[in-house]
């Protein structure tokens, strides 16, 4: 029964996101075929041919079914700019975004959790005010400006890190997984690995800023919340060492909320990735989508809608599941309800 | 002396600082319609990339246009769009939220599901796709940024209104024969003012940020209008020779967003 329910849910999600990405090309005023050809104009036959290639000559429900069936196997047609299958472009680009987002999430979660805990434990101290102001500022910061400032100091003034691309052009990395951290090590090029690390520092630093602000704020607030519970007072009054209370009683109970905030931060990473990748010329999904919108490359735009929604749904699901793992309360609620 | 509600509100430091900062931008916004040092698109030959100070108070850009004038006119877009979007989000988002909570059942389901659909995509991406469909322009920027900000407003107002719906005074109003519109506007709405106020400030700051982000990506308000995000994008290649082109517009943007966030944070603390 549970499996059937899950299957139904997945099918529903799939139909929904394919409907959204299917609609986008049809919402554009005018004939998409004419948009693809551009303003220069073309012969009647050429327009008819493109319409046929896009399947626009068939009734809408049939078009949608065909589109969904193709989307299921990842077939979004050819990019009108590069003439490559959209899927093969995507295969190379998505590991770049995941690699960047992973590094950004890793540092922002660790630092954010640390700062949030410190602020909550030393409430109303210098550390607390510092962490709270930092988080307020981080929320308000337009990350594209923050990126410019970071480039200005660390690259233009100090010359410490490169700002454009994923790795030095002198390295030739054989494609295995698409993740440069893995590929460089798998092919045994230590220098290339170091170079990849250097290139990821600045964009990941910038991308992690807004998530950092969020994680600091939520972890501070939830730890303070839990610290006021009765069982914490009991634990203190029976004389347990504070470290033990902090990690065994407080932190464990604050974790579900913190994990949820990290999940939210992952959603923000996707938005941030568009801006950060554009700023640092990082060859990932974000820049791919922007470029395709600029070039009116609709098959790529469709795939972009599809994949980004897919990622959001998967991230939400992972967050929910991991909250259930750490919090028995949530698990039981679901089972009982 | 009795302390008025306003005085109490401004004892909250966040609200105070936020309002002062915001008032400054409103002042610039109003003045920009009446007076700017130069025309925002007037090109001064041989005066490109002038530093801060001198004839041009904040220097000039790469084409020799006065930065201060451009910033002031840029405030019309950033602040103007922020206010307009905040306003529309209140009317549409809060309106639909009340509607959904009041009628419940199918109306609620349909509205709630469609808002879920809008939120299934990261906000900037949704705004980008709307611009991709409609093409970049001032109106389309407003449309896309508004669309993004409606769902959160809807959700907050809906959940607050649902709580209120279960209370007795609504029942009494119904029993007295009050009409749907009267109950929604005279009874439900006043009790949902807190989330609406707080969230409209949040919508405003998100709208300012998203407008600038669209501009930075080259898909916002088209040239020759001076929009802060677009100005920042242009400054990237000039940061060595003319860093003021990067520092000043970015600082304006940060302070404007910060002011609206301080107001919303402070309001939330104060009202809850």
Quick overview:
With 337 residues, chain A is mainly α. Chain A is 77% helix and 0% strand.
Question: What separation lies between the terminal Cα atoms of chain B?
Answer: 25 Å
Q: For the report, how would you describe the main beta sheet of chain B? A: none
Shape of chain A: globular
Cα-to-Cα separation, first versus last residue of chain A: 15 Å
The proportion of residues forming helix of chain B, as a percent range, comes to: over 70%
**Average residue pLDDT of chain B:** 88
Q: What is the radius of gyration of chain A computed over CA atoms, rounded to a whole number of angstroms?
A: 24 Å
**Strand fraction of chain A:** under 5%
**What is the multimeric organization of the chains shown?**
heterodimer
Strand pairing plus helix content of chain B: what structural class?
mainly alpha
Q: Taking all residues together, what is the mean pLDDT of chain A?
A: 85
Largest interface: A-B, 38 and 37 residues
* Series of secondary-structure elements of chain A, N-terminal to C-terminal: HHHHHHHHHHHHHHH
H/E series of chain B:
HHHHHHHHHHH
How many H/I helical runs of chain A? Answer: 15
What is Rg of chain B? 22 Å
The beta-strand count of chain B equals 0
């Amino acid at each position: 029964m549970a499996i059937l329910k899950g299957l139904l849910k997945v099918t529903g999600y799939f139909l929904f996101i394919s409907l959204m990405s299917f609609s986008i090309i049809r919402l554009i005023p005018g004939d998409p075929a004419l948009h693809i050809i551009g303003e220069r104009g073309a012969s009647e036959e050429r327009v008819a041919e493109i319409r046929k290639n896009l399947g626009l000559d068939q009734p809408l429900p049939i078009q949608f079914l065909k589109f969904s069936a193709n989307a299921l196997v990842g077939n979004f047609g050819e990019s009108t700019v590069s003439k490559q299958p959209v899927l093969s472009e995507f295969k190379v680009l998505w590991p770049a975004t995941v690699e960047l987002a992973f590094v950004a999430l890793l540092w922002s979660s660790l630092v954010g959790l640390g700062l949030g805990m410190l602020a909550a434990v030393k409430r109303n101290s210098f550390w607390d005010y510092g962490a709270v102001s930092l988080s307020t500022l981080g929320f308000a910061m337009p990350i594209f400006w923050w990126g410019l400032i970071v480039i200005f100091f660390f690259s233009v003034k100090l010359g410490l890190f490169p700002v454009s691309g994923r790795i030095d052009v002198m390295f030739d990395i054989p494609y295995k997984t698409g993740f440069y951290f893995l590929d460089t090590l798998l092919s045994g090029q230590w220098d290339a690995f170091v170079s990849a690390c250097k290139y990821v520092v600045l964009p990941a630093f910038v991308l992690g800023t807004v998530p950092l602000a969020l994680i600091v704020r939520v972890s501070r607030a939830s730890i303070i919340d839990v610290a006021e519970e009765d069982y914490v007072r009991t634990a203190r009054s029976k004389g347990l060492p504070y470290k033990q209370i902090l990690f065994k009683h407080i932190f464990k109970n604050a974790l579900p909320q913190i994990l949820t905030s990290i999940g939210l931060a992952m959603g923000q990473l996707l938005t941030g990735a568009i801006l950060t990748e554009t700023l640092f010329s990082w060859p990932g999904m974000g820049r791919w989508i922007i470029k395709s919108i600029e070039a009116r490359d609709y098959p790529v735009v469709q795939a972009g809608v599809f994949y980004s929604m897919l990622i959001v749904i998967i991230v939400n699901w992972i967050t929910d599941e991991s909250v259930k793992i750490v919090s028995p309360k949530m698990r039981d609620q679901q089972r009982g309800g | 002396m009795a302390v008025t509600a306003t005085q109490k509100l401004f004892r909250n430091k966040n609200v105070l600082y936020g309002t002062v900062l915001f008032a400054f931008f409103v002042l610039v916004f109003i003045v920009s319609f009446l007076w700017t040092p130069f025309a925002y698109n007037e090109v001064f030959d041989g005066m490109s990339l002038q530093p801060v100070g001198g004839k041009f108070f904040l220097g000039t850009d790469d084409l020799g246009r006065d930065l201060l004038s451009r910033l002031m006119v840029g405030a019309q877009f950033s602040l103007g769009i922020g206010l307009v979007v905040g306003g529309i989000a209140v009317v549409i988002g809060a309106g639909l939220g009340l509607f959904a909570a009041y009628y419940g059942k199918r109306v609620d389901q349909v509205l709630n599901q469609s808002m879920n659909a809008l939120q299934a995509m990261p906000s900037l991406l949704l705004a980008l796709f709307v611009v991709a469909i409609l093409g970049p322009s001032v109106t389309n920027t407003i449309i896309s940024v508004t669309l993004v900000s409606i769902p959160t407003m809807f959700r907050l107002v809906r959940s607050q209104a649902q709580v209120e719906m279960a209370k007795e005074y609504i029942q009494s109003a119904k029993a007295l024969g009050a009409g749907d519109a009267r109950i929604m506007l005279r009874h439900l709405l006043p009790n949902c003012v807190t989330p609406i106020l707080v969230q409209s400030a949040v919508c405003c700051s998100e709208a300012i940020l998203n407008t600038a982000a669209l501009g930075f990506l080259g898909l916002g308000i088209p040239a020759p209008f001076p929009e802060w995000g677009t100005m920042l994008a242009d400054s990237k290649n000039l940061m060595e020779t003319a860093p003021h082109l990067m520092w000043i517009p970015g600082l304006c943007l940060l302070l404007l967003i910060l002011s609206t966030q301080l107001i919303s944070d402070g309001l939330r603390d104060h009202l809850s």
